[in-house]
Amino acid sequence: MEYRRLGRSGLQISSLVLGTMNFGKPTDKQEAFRIVDAAIDQGINIIDCADVYANGESERILGEAFKHNGKRKDILLTSKVYNRMGPGPNDLGNSKHHIIEGCEKSLHRLKTDYIDIYFLHRTDLNVPQEESLAALDLLVKQGKIRHIACSTHPPWRTVEALWLADKHHYPKFICEQPPYNLLDRRIENEIIPMCQAYDLGIIAWSPLAHGVLAGRYTDAANLPEGSRGTLRKVFHDRITQEGIDVGFRFAKKSEEKECTAAQLAVAWVLNQPGITGTILGPRNLEQLESLLPALDILLDDDDMKFFDSLVPPGRYVVNYFNTSGWMK
Q1: Residue from 318, 138, 137 nearest 241 by CA
Q2: How far is CA 306 from CA 159, 241, 249, 309, 312, in A?
Q3: Do the domain assignments include residue 327?
Q4: What is the pLDDT of residue 51?
Q5: Beta strands of 107-226 (E only): which ranges?
Q6: Which one of 157, 172, 185, 309 has the fewest beta carbons within 10 angstroms of its own beta carbon?
Q7: 136 belongs to a structural domain
Q8: Could you give the residue numbers annotated as active site?
């Protein structure tokens, strides 16, 4: 396993990050246990979660997995807050109320005393960032979270948060977690340069483009039953024929490299400047194990030129920011 420094935190994290969005739906508890144990055995030392995944069930399963294997102290555990978690008007967003309540509930579901990295899952333009940072500062002082981070934030908003942290002596974001794959390269325009300038790590999500770059789709109008694109509308909207066509050409390169298209998609992300790690979201143990060889794939200048010919740097053919609320 390869380890990289996560921004200003100094933490060394595995470049492959275990994502748990599938835990609880569709991945059952016992399979999730096997995935967690195998990931740790392979050297993965960071597991990514969020309160909204399966409406809290992913956190509950992950908490039980740690209770079962006794390896909580060996893992950097993340979770997130922002999305709606109840029917009330204050059951969402980045208000002090929701952040503190969300963290308490996540700690309970995860069966842990602290979260290593706590993300604001999205930016909340209705709440001053001073309030959000004050809530996170309180949680850090209470020992309930150790580091703070942001996910899919506009770069100006992240820089504003860093400036406010300096002004008020609040903790600073250590990392941004944006969508990044060959089909949507827009983080190369501003987010990656911003993170490099301010020493923030980058943990990318959706490196396989919901399976499009793994060759799992042939027709955007006829998606396989049970595939990621059939689970939620926001996923469905990311499966387009243009993306599938790029995926076909991408798969040809994987044959040349003697690896799977999925492995090549992960390797492409890990070989980009500024990237600390990328999230794998396996449904089963077989999927996890099939992606691990991505670490050994070497990409040369000719490979990178070919990928740039499919989707030029900074451009996109599919919108993976469709839940951001700000990227146009």
Answers
A1: 318
A2: 34, 20, 10, 5, 10
A3: no
A4: 98
A5: 115-120, 145-151, 173-177, 201-204
A6: 309
A7: yes
A8: 53
Q: Give the residues across from 3 on adjacent strands.
A: 14
Q: What is the DSSP letter of 314?
A: T
Closest CA to 37 of 289, 295, 291: 289
Closest Cα partner for 146 from 178, 96, 107, 94?
A: 107
Over the Cα atoms of the chain, what is R_g?
19
**Residue closest to 99 by CA, chosen among 69, 131, 63:** 131
Q: Which amino acid is at 111?
A: K
Q: Give ∠ CA 221-225-229 in degrees, rounded to 5.
A: 60
Domain that holds residue 181: 3-310
Q: What is the mean pLDDT of residues 13-37?
A: 97
Question: 43-96: per-residue pLDDT in tens?
Answer: 999 999 999 999 999 999 999 999 999 999 999 999 999 999 999 999 999 999
Q: Is the peptide bond before 273 cis (omega within 30 degrees of 0)?
A: no
Domains: count for the chain = 1
Decide if 168 is inside a domain: yes
Are 65 and 36 in contact by the 8 Å Cβ rule? The answer is: yes
Cα–Cα distance measured from residue 39 to residue 137, given in angstroms and rounded to the nearest whole number: 31
Domain contains 38: yes
Evaluate if residue 328 carries a pLDDT over 90. no
Any idea what the CATH number is for the domain that residue 84 is in? 3.20.20.100
